[in-house]
Amino acid sequence: MQAARNAPSEVPARFGFSVIILTYARDTALQTTLASLRNAIGDRQDVEVVLVDNNVDKVDRASFLTVFAHRRYVRTGANKGVSGRNDGMAVAKGEILVLLDDDVLIESHDLFDKLSAAFTSEPRVGVVNARKLDSKTMSLLPEFIPHTRKDVDTTRPFFTFRFVGGLVALRRALYQDVGGFSPEFFYGLEEREYSYRIIKAGWKILYQPDIVAIETTDEGGRASRIDQRTETLSNRYIISYLHTPLAPMIANFVLFTLFLVIKERGRVNVGRALGKFSTWLKKPGRPARRPIDRHAQAYIRACGGAIWR
To answer: Which of 25, 126, 268, 308 could join 221 via S-S bond, C-beta 3.0 to 4.6 A?
Structure first.
């Protein structure tokens, strides 16, 4: 990772919020996202913007940030995938770390006030997840609901055991306690794996529907659908192996595979996903299997979830 570059103005030792944006092959979408962020920040001086550049070209995107009073630009030097967010989290100076995707627009102009209220509601709230709407339908798609039950009331806040990306905020204390995203995952379900570690450590995840974002689903930098879904399936095997007890793990392997094959109408390569999982199992230094304990299982059940899912 190359050194982060600060704005020329004096930089405070600490901010209330750091907004961290990881970008790759989405310059047009990124600039639209930054414009929505600029509107949300307004004249606040307690927010810094950290742009993590995963592109491998020589374009200097620091110029995209000149509208922000407090800014940092981090060039990773390679496409690290989703774990590139860790480079931004490592240099961020905010007490609240806000992870914003480079193709997601902020709809709530009072975002930071609402985040403050959500985090002060209870000391063990470690993550606040926004309500993310699809730009084409302006609806909350099932895959955007941070819960295994898709009939949960999404018009009201609720505690949950997983979060979905797009617009999500974490306490600095949680990041210091749990660490960042696992480098085991290049793309797909990285939030799911992180969520397991978060609830294992005794933190809570809050879904807050009053905080609204819009997912534009820019196709820049994305792999083909079959490659995406195959990677997702392989990652699901890894996550289930790492974090779920034996019986739920087996159920997850079988039922999720069937679900994905049916949903994607064959646009997933199960054999390749199993092969990737097998290769990962043999990898030296991979994370050890540590299933969630009874406290984390009780938290999932209290949130209305099922351990096997």
So the answer is: 25
At residue 49, what is the residue type?
Answer: V
| Cα→Cα distances 282→80, 196, 199, 279, 286, Å | 22, 22, 27, 5, 8
Mean pLDDT by 10 residues, the chain (309 residues): 55 90 96 98 97 95 97 94 96 98 97 97 96 96 96 97 98 98 93 98 98 89 81 95 96 90 87 96 96 97 94
Number of domains in the chain: 2
Give a yes or no: residue 49 inside a domain.
Answer: yes
8 A C-beta contact, residue 253 and residue 237 = yes
Residues found in the chain = 309
pLDDT of res. 199: 98
Residues 68 and 87 placed together within one structural domain of the fold: yes
Tell me what pLDDT residue 79 has: 93
Three-state DSSP class for 98?
strand
Q: Rounded to an integer, what distance in angstroms lies between the CA atom of residue 293 and that of residue 244?
A: 9
* Tokens read off for 268: 């997933």
Strands 71-75 and 47-53, bridge-based pairing = parallel
- Rounded-to-integer distance, Cα 263 and Cα 119, Å: 36
Tokens 């009201």 -> residue: 156
**Phi, psi dihedrals of residue 32, rounded to the nearest 5°:** -70, -40
Q: What is the pLDDT of residue 8?
A: 47
Given this model, what pLDDT does residue 218 score? 78
CATH at residue 11: 3.90.550.10
Q: Angle 113-119-125 (CA atoms, 0-180°, nearest 5)?
A: 155
**Angle at the Cα of 199 from the Cα atoms of 83 and 307, rounded to 5 degrees:** 105
Q: Where in the sequence is the domain holding 285, given as residue range(s)? A: 225-302
CB atoms within 10 A of CB 29: 21
Yes or no: say if 287 and 231 are a contact pair by the CB < 8 Å rule: no
- Distance, CA of 84 to CA of 172 (rounded, Å): 17
